[in-house]
């Protein structure tokens, strides 16, 4: 049985926080909201608790987890060296959606790092997440709280759908505001390298520490490049439906999608279209969901995973979607969208 508790972020009930912390201290699993997506937490230092996370998610054991801490001062307990670069980034972006990769100390079990010598650490800003981590007095391993391969959860009901019966407790704290997972930055080597784009962009990082590189494997669809973040190599964030993305001038994309919808609906296929506020009135399809204002990258990012899940609930067979601007968090949105689409992107000229 999974305990489900609703917590008001503006009036946090400490009894529920203590209940969650007790479960974590006893080696159990607690799903909770963070500012990026919901996470499924366990005690990082307990091998069996960590194993339960991999079981619950059906996650490949070579895909390492992020350790969540309540304060910067905790990091030195788990890593061998904190560079000036890492210090600056923690001062500027923590708490928040930035995960840093360090060389790990032995106290961090190998099953949380997928056998790697490095460990990923993040200090979330979400008040409920922080209260739970603080009350547990433990470093909390927390991957996104979805079944492996599915879109990450941005609402408790997504977690309930995926993990009911598989975790001890789900804390419902409303929407995850950002809606995409944290930026993962490797600071263990000489050049800071983005392994997963997120809400903290390359430009934001460069303002603080100078030149930052991006793992070439995440910019290209070349299958011979293996991403440095093991999780980035899987088809991921994927709805059940086939998803196809169209890039080009907006009016051309809309009319191309309309033609395809027409053809497929005549074959009795159930089709969904992901539209924007600007285009939603121009589609001719039975199932249209607007993801938001195309000039508001934050809004689009925060709605992406929810919209993909909504189409799954409707049992749509094919989803057509416009490509979005890569401005700001748009780089991360397009990264997740293309992974969800298995890189099916078509240029309309
Ligand atoms: O926003 C987030 O980061 C969310 C919330 C819950 O905090 N968590 C999250 O965790 O997205 P997860 O497990 O779904 O994704 C962790 C990513 C994976 O791509 C994994 O391969 C990478 O981080 N990662 C973890 N440790 C790593 C390491 N030592 N070296 C390289 N990549 C690592
Ligand atoms: Mg994940």
From TrEMBL:
EC numbers: 2.7.7.87
Catalytic activity: L-threonine + hydrogencarbonate + ATP = L-threonylcarbamoyladenylate + diphosphate + H2O
Primary location class: cytoplasm
GO terms, biological process: regulation of translational fidelity; tRNA processing
Pfam family membership, one: Sua5_C
Protein residues bound to L-threonine: 36, 68, 122, 142, 182
Domain of life where this protein originates: Bacteria
GO molecular function, one term: tRNA binding
Cross-referenced InterPro entries: DHBP_synth_RibB-like_a/b_dom (IPR017945), Sua5-like_dom (IPR006070), Sua5/YwlC_C (IPR038385), Sua5_C (IPR005145), T(6)A37_SUA5 (IPR010923), TC-AMP_synthase_SUA5 (IPR050156)
GO cellular component, one term: cytoplasm
PROSITE patterns hit by this protein: YRDC
Compartments where located: Cytoplasm
Keyword Nucleotide-binding annotated: yes
Key word Metal-binding present: no
YrdC-like domain: residues covered: 14-200
Binding site for ATP: 59, 63, 118, 144, 152, 196, 237
Family indicated by similarity: Belongs to the SUA5 family.
Function, in words: Required for the formation of a threonylcarbamoyl group on adenosine at position 37 (t(6)A37) in tRNAs that read codons beginning with adenine.
NCBIfam families: L-threonylcarbamoyladenylate synthase
Protein name in the entry: Threonylcarbamoyl-AMP synthase
């Amino acid at each position: 049985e999974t305990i489900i508790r609703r917590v008001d972020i503006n009036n946090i009930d400490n009894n529920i926080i203590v209940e969650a912390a007790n479960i974590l201290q006893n080696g159990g699993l607690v799903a909770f909201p963070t500012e990026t997506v919901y996470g499924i937490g366990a005690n990082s230092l307990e091998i069996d608790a960590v194993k339960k996370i991999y079981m619950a998610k059906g996650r490949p054991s070579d895909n390492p987890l992020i350790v969540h801490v309540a304060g910067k001062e905790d990091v030195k307990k788990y890593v061998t060296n904190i560079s000036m670069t890492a210090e600056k980034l923690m001062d500027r972006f923590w708490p928040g959606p930035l995960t840093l990769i360090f060389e790990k100390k032995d106290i961090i079990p190998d099953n949380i790092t997928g056998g790697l010598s490095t460990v990923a650490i993040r200090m979330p800003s979400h008040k409920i997440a922080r209260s739970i981590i603080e009350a547990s007095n433990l470093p909390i391993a927390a991957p996104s709280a979805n079944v492996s391969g599915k879109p990450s959860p941005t609402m408790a009901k997504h977690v309930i759908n995926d993990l009911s019966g598989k975790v001890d407790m789900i804390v419902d704290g409303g929407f995850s505001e950002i809606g995409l997972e944290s930026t993962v930055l490797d600071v263990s080597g000489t050049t800071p390298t983005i392994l997963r784009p997120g809400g903290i962009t390359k430009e934001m990082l460069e303002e603080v520490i100078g030149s930052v590189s991006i793992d070439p494997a995440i910019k290209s669809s070349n299958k011979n490049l293996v991403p440095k973040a093991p999780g980035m190599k899987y088809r991921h964030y994927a709805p059940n439906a086939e998803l196809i993305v169209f890039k080009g001038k907006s009016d051309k994309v809309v009319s191309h999608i309309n033609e395809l919808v027409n053809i497929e609906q005549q074959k009795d296929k159930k089709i969904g279209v992901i539209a924007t506020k600007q285009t939603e009135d121009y589609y001719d399809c039975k199932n249209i969901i607007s993801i938001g204002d195309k000039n508001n990258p934050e809004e689009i990012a925060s709605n992406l995973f929810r919209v993909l899940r909504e189409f799954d609930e409707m049992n749509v067979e094919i989803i057509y979607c416009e490509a979005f601007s890569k401005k700001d968090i748009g780089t991360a949105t397009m990264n997740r969208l293309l992974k969800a689409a298995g890189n099916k992107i078509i240029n309309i000229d």
